[in-house]
Design a protein that fits this description.
Layout: H1 8-17, E1 26-31, H2 35-53, H3 65-69, E2 80-87, H4 108-124, E3 132-135, H5 143-150, E4 154-155, E5 161-162, E6 170-177, H6 196-200, H7 218-223, H8 230-239, H9 247-250, H10 273-276, H11 281-287, H12 297-309
Length: 311
């Protein structure tokens, strides 16, 4: 595959600049044939295998451990992976709404995917025969592993990724390609383990060792289908959210004075019963089609509203 039209690292940089975003985008590039990465993938494979054996993999996660770790398996002859952090926090977001801040704006599954497609389209102008695999959340790969390993984001003890510019208010996008790209990575970084998130977590889900017990995480519980037990309902009442949870983000000092971005759609901070009572599930999905909570449907949101109403 020819590379002489333009330096590949320059093409990737220009493909991101070509998005014409009014804010900075942080990214890294990894060589999938690098021995150090391969060793880290093997170690992470073992970690996830242990979690699976201990029944700590939730229904929102794939239990196909191999597919979550090895980007080399999602695309034939894959050689490189681009890891990109897309910020979402605006000045209109609020800690006081009953929705988690990540789903107050446009669904990142839509916005991030669109931007990843634009990046790929730009690169294909130079390498039309190149192959790509893109992902933002709804895919097989564990995005946080690659963001942490590449150094583009700091790993928090709450297992979240923190941008040096935007804090934890970022979505991770991945592009796997069969092009060999010049590596661009940074030193791996951790938070300072102040334990504020451990002490504040509504469900006691933050273990203090950079892992969480997802079954006790309010964010997972708010998305869980069906009836909730008394303990799960109590966790939602403590979090005060009908979808997601921001407590560990709110108490983290790495989120102090982070930069915000211009909004890309109307910000919805709160949903009330009167907003959805008269809606069928179909109408609910139509009304909130561009929101990240839309995929769970009306019944889950209604259940959570009723739990908070009874508090």
């Amino acid at each position: 595959m020819p590379y002489d039209e333009e330096d590949m690292s320059s093409i990737v940089k220009k493909s991101i600049l070509n998005l014409n975003l009014p804010y900075e985008i942080e990214y890294a590039i990894l060589n999938l044939e690098d021995e150090e990465l391969l060793k880290s993938q093997q170690d992470f494979f073992g970690f996830l295998t242990n979690r699976k054996n201990d029944n700590l993999i939730t229904s929102l996660e794939s239990d196909d451990i191999n597919s979550r770790v090895f980007a080399q398996n999602v695309l034939e002859d894959a050689k490189s992976i681009i890891v990109i952090l897309f910020p979402y926090l605006t000045d209109e977001h609020s800690k006081n709404g009953n929705l988690s801040m990540y789903c107050m704006g446009m669904d990142y599954h839509i916005s991030v995917k669109d931007m990843l497609c634009e990046i790929v389209k730009y690169i294909k102008n130079f390498h039309k025969d190149a192959d790509f695999y893109i992902q933002s959340d709804t895919g097989t790969l564990n995005e946080r592993f690659f963001a942490f390993y590449s150094g583009v984001g700091r790993l928090g003890i709450n297992s979240m990724i923190f941008s040096d510019i935007y804090g934890s208010y970022v979505n991770i996008g991945l592009i796997v390609t069969d092009l060999f790209l010049d590596e661009k990575k940074y030193e791996k970084k951790y938070c300072d383990q102040c334990m504020a998130c451990v002490k504040s977590c509504p469900g006691g889900a933050v273990n203090g060792d950079f892992t969480i017990n997802s079954y006790r995480c309010a964010s997972y519980i708010t998305q869980k289908k069906g009836e909730l037990n008394e303990q799960e309902q109590g966790i939602i009442k403590k979090s005060k959210k009908i979808f997601g949870c921001d407590v560990c983000q709110n108490v983290c000092h790495f989120n102090n004075n982070v930069k915000t971005i211009p909004k890309n759609c109307d910000i919805i901070k709160t949903i009330k019963n009167e907003d959805i009572d008269e809606l069928s599930n179909k109408k609910f999905k139509e009304k909130y089609i561009s929101r990240a909570f839309n995929f769970r449907g009306k019944s889950v949101i209604k259940r959570n509203l009723d739990i908070l109403k009874d508090d």
